[in-house]
Amino acid sequence: YAKDNGRNNFQFFTPEMNARVSERLALENNLRQAIARNELFLHYQPQFDLQTGELTGCEALVRWQHPELGLIPPSRFIPVAEDSGLILPLGHWVLREACRQAKAWQDAGLRPIPVAVNLSAVQFRQARLATMIADVLAESGLAPRWLELELTESMLMEDGERHTTALADLKALGVGLALDDFGTGYSSLSYLKRFDLDTLKIDRSFVQSLPDDSEDAALTTAIIGIARQFGLKTVAEGVETEAQRAFLAAQGCTLMQGFLLARPMAGAELAELLETVPA
Ligand code: C2E
Ligand code: MG
Ligand code: MG
Ligand code: MG
């Protein structure tokens, strides 16, 4: 089809593409106001120990309640925030809010659990990221061991030298480091040697077709085995069925996160779960 259009066809933007571009611009303008107007909030998805069933952690996931457009998922506004630079104030807000909530749970007498926060590659390129995080921790009063930062493989491949230092600076704060969506990017086993990570998160795309798909089963088993050799915890993402849970538990995966046991929920709901699920 593209070939038939020939060289002299300058119709680069289809009406659908134009619509998408103006939607992005509208989102970008709205996102600028969203933080100040308190339209952003966090949901927390629990993580459970695969051997004991205990609730042992959670991941903070940002949501945007737009006054006219309704609830907008992060897959739609995070890319806009990254392209426009708005991810820096947004990411700062997410960190502050997650640390505040984790400390509030502890102050309410609940059993402490770590909260994981997703970092964008744009934040990771910030020279003062470690200082910013140290300030957020100090301001919230949360001990660093209760914060885990989720990174992606694409961040680590950009510039090895600089990132080894950046990760070491983060690690020196005493926070945990997790590699998100493991296996989907330009996965390199050398990351495991070069960077002092604590957790590998096995991407949902591998978990989805377990245990029947023999290739995904082999990959998952291999990731869990390598992680164990390196002393890393594994978190299986997107566990939706009992068969997936049983397979992952049998392979020795450490934690699971998925709709089978819990969806992302408000902080108050997670507090209730923490009270009812015994330690
Ligand atoms: P992620 O970090 O890999 O987060 C896991 C995503 O999987 C979440 O989607 C979660 O709701 C979803 N999920 C969990 N269990 C299941 C399941 O059993 N089935 C299915 N179908 N999905 C499941 P969500 O909240 O829509 O977030 C999507 C992505 O947006 C995140 O993927 C992350 O990359 C990004 N994101 C979310 N919050 C933030 C944030 O505060 N900062 C940054 N930079 N990115 C964020
Ligand atoms: Mg994540
Ligand atoms: Mg993930
Ligand atoms: Mg992701």
UniProtKB/TrEMBL annotation:
Q: What superkingdom does the record give? A: Bacteria
Where is each EAL domain found?
24-278
Q: Where in the cell is it found?
A: Cell membrane
Name under which the protein is recorded: Diguanylate cyclase/phosphodiesterase with PAS/PAC sensor
UniProt source species: Oryzomicrobium terrae
**Which span of the entire protein is present here?**
658 to 936 of 936
